[in-house]
Amino acid sequence: MTKISRRGFFKLAGGATAALTQAPALVAQAAPAPTPAAHSGAALFFNPDEMRWIEAATERLIPEDDNGPGARAAGVPVYIDRQLAGAWGAGERLYRSGPWQPGDASQGYQLPFTPAELFRNALRGAREELQGRKQGAFETLPGPRQDLYLESLQNGKQDLHGVPAHVFFESLLALTIEGYFSDPVYGGNKDMASWKMIGFPGAYASFYDLVDQHGVAYTRAPISMGDNGAGVIHLHPVSTQHSGKRGA
Amino acid sequence: MATKLAEVDAVLVGVGLVGTMLGRELTRAGLKVVGLERGRPQFTVPDFQGPQMHDELRYSVRKGLMQDNTKEAVTFRNRADQVALPIRRWESFLPGTGLGGAAVHWNGQTYRFQDSDFRMRSLTTERYGARFADPGLTIQDWGVTAADMEPHYDRFEYLLGVSGLAGNIGGKKIAGGNPFEDARRRGYPTPPMKEPYGSALFRKAAAQQGYHPFPQPSSNLSQPYTNPEGMQLSTCMFCGYCERYACEHYAKSSPQTILLPVLLKDPHFTLRTQAQVLRINLSKDKRQATGVTYVDAAGREFEQPAKLVVLGSFALNNVRMLLLSGIGTPYDPRSGQGTVGRNYAYQTMSSVQVFFDEKTNINPFMRSGACGTVIADFVGDNFDHGPHKFIGGAYVGEVMTNGRPIEFHPTPPGTPSWGGKWKSAVVRHYNHTSVLNVHGSSMAHRANYLDLDPTYKDAWGLPLLRMTFDFPANDLRMSAYVTGKAVEIGRAMGARQVNGAGRKGPYTVTQYQTTHNTGGTVMGADRSTSVVNCYLQSWDVSNLFVIGASNFPQNASYNPTDTVGALAYMAAEAIVQRYLKSPGPMVQA
Ligand SMILES: Cc1cc2nc3c(=O)[nH]c(=O)nc-3n(C[C@H](O)[C@H](O)[C@H](O)COP(=O)(O)OP(=O)(O)OC[C@H]3O[C@@H](n4cnc5c(N)ncnc54)[C@H](O)[C@@H]3O)c2cc1C
Ligand code: SF4
Q1: How far is CA A143 from CA A8, A22, B423, in A?
Q2: CA-CA-CA-CA torsion for A207, B98, B86, B554, nearest 10 degrees?
Q3: DSSP letters spanning B121-158
């Protein structure tokens, strides 16, 4: 497979003509057959184009390998779709009053976009960026080319309909990691595969007897919140029988 | 128009840790007390139960138990010549809300400050000379000593049931405890927690290097305990969902487990939740508080008259409430005059990652909020600062709290931030990495302060609090030095690789450090440099008591809450035993 260095890519990215001459060779050698969407059911937020982009991108961020499933099989695109469709996507717990002004990095996120707006604008911008270069849609590029494009977002300041590319990338990566490692009830981490992969016990939470068995190999299967929908109630051994009046 | 309610003896602004404690002390003294809490009512059953409580996404990442910053945020800038912008998502610090306040979802790391913290200015001058500290630092004495505080620490720790090993009982040193602590009258109420693996490795390495490791004093209990209020606490399960979570097991000391049920049974006490206090009302001459104005969940406005007002709404909110109510003189960084908002300080944190081989199972998920082993050899003035160009210090410890993987998936430096190599590194290191904390002091500086923002407003149209803060150079030097020592200990733990560096500026609100915001309503003996006297009584309004970490003139190496609780008991004692007998200023200015 032709390897293309990062510097090479930036040269490519800089000039559409260069991209045109190089891209076909790469596609011919390394393009995987586009896989059908692995998500179950209808997307709540993404349109089909956006979903394909997200599926392809998240799979590059956390690829399938011998360690365990990639983001796609783990349901990360479903997770992101649901997050953006819900309250969090609409700006829950995001102080949203203006005036809006760019600040220093130390001042944190200052864009007027909700997460849903941010993704919608940035995805449109990213698609147009590649269209402008006549490279074909992101999801049809071979893996290494997809990585180079993701790197150009990660390190880039280009404007994706108002969203700086690196801000979009950071949000995408953060949501991908959330979806991969959060409880499966949110739609990602299918079969708790990521927890099994690293040995995290999940919602199970009682290690009093094990904590001082130093170095013990913990092999119990993880538990999801969904495995115990009825919940366990811990009743208090209530002891405050006396009234509030007590001598000081 | 506000509905005017009947006058009560005392009103509490905020029913978190301080509010609950003062509510109990004042009702016990026979006062009729109303507690106003802006957040929801919440209790161990049914609100804090598993498995729903073990949801990393909801509570750690989305900050499910924290102050709703769509309603109230804080604006921030590093320097006074910048435009402050709202902190649109909490990251660096996480103000709590709801009945019980931040003490519901704290870790429970429970330390006393030392005499050298309380008498920082005078002891620094005595030992190193008046010119030793950087000239911009506005450090000062608290007006109390460790000996004054001891009875109140003792009482608070027995309320919490703290698990620990004393190092100094009545001047007698005890092996295995903290040899640097000031004398305490008796040991901790419960023995130390079990020691996790990483902490044990730290203990050995630190001892080898000649330091004095001891178990971190913890309000996650090592065994069942009944406190003096008759409340029963249970044994901590090391559940790994502690910091940012409420405890389902009644094992973490919080208002709900140590005191609230007793207070709520008292007929003299009335709790109103979802009651957002907008301001403290004053008499015409501004010398007396007449009560407070609050808004309920449906937006209805009420005036609650009271003879006594206790402001215990968390450090940042205490400062803002005084500014919104026009109490005291706001600090002006140009002239150095004014006291409200002055001496805002924080905590100077860094960490060291210790990467082990694949045979060493650290099991980071078998942890609690406050388990672990620490050394105090570099705390405060426990070492000679003469050769160094800084004051203050840090404790170093292996005090990991969890292995929740969205936020905890350490990889060695040089690992890409995504892709196959990243994934393999996460798998390789997840269970074989330990983290050391370097928990450093924060010196007050003339350039760091709190005031009201000129632009941004809360949901009720009132100005947000504006924070102007950057790490003083002194604190960065301290952090570099102590973190270097921590790296050496990490190496001695038998690690393959150790990674860590001191805190770097500028301070950023995008990364969690601690919720140990301090100062702004500083206590002291001199009213030109303090907002409250040594009984936490407002110099300006004598029937107002302001209580919280906002009273700290600067922040010590240790976590603040033991000191907040001790101050609360100290103030309560002064109110009950002296103030109520003859209301008025307890200290003449
Ligand atoms: C994640 C986390 C971990 C922590 N870990 C530790 C630790 O390990 N060790 C340690 O020492 N400290 C720790 N702390 C700090 C500790 O929680 C605080 O020091 C302690 O809770 C302070 O008590 P307080 O009563 O001053 O404030 P709080 O307990 O926060 O109570 C203040 C209450 O006032 C209410 N309030 C505020 N404004 C208004 C208003 N306008 N009207 C009505 N009500 C209002 C709030 O809703 C809140 O309930 C931690 C904090 C956090 C967030
Ligand atoms: S770690 Fe212990 S104290 Fe903390 S929430 Fe879990 S059981 Fe409770």
Answers
A1: 16, 15, 16
A2: -70
A3: HHHHHHHH-TTSS-TTB-----S--HHHHHHHHHHHHH
Query: Chain A within 8 Å of B28 (Cβ-Cβ)?
Result: yes
Q: Give the burial class of B351: count Cβ atoms within 10 A of its Cβ; 0-12 exposed, 13-18 middle, 19 or more buried.
A: middle
A21 has pLDDT over 50: no
Q: Quick check: is B212 catalytic?
A: no
Of A88, A200, A248, the CB nearest to B62: A88
User: Is-cis flag, bond preceding B213, omega within 30?
Assistant: no
Interface probe with B: pick from A60, A66, A93, A166, most Cβ of B within 10 Å: A93
Query: Tens digits of per-residue pLDDT, B486-518?
Result: 999 999 999 999 999 999 999 999 999 999 999
What is the pTM for the complete model shown?
0.94
pLDDT, position B50: 85
Summarize pLDDT for B243-277 with one digit per residue, the tens: 999 999 999 999 999 999 999 999 999 999 999 99
For residues A88 and A175, what is the distance between their CA atoms, to the nearest angstrom?
11
The complex scores an ipTM of 0.96
Chain A residues with CB-CB distance to B79 below 8 A: none
Of residues A65, A104, A214, nearest to B78 (C-beta): A104
Q: Could you say which DSSP state residue B439 is in?
A: E
Q: For ligand 2, what atom is nearest to the CA of residue B240?
A: 1
Q: What percent of chain A has pLDDT over 70?
A: 75
Decide: B513 and B258 in contact? Cβ < 8 Å: no
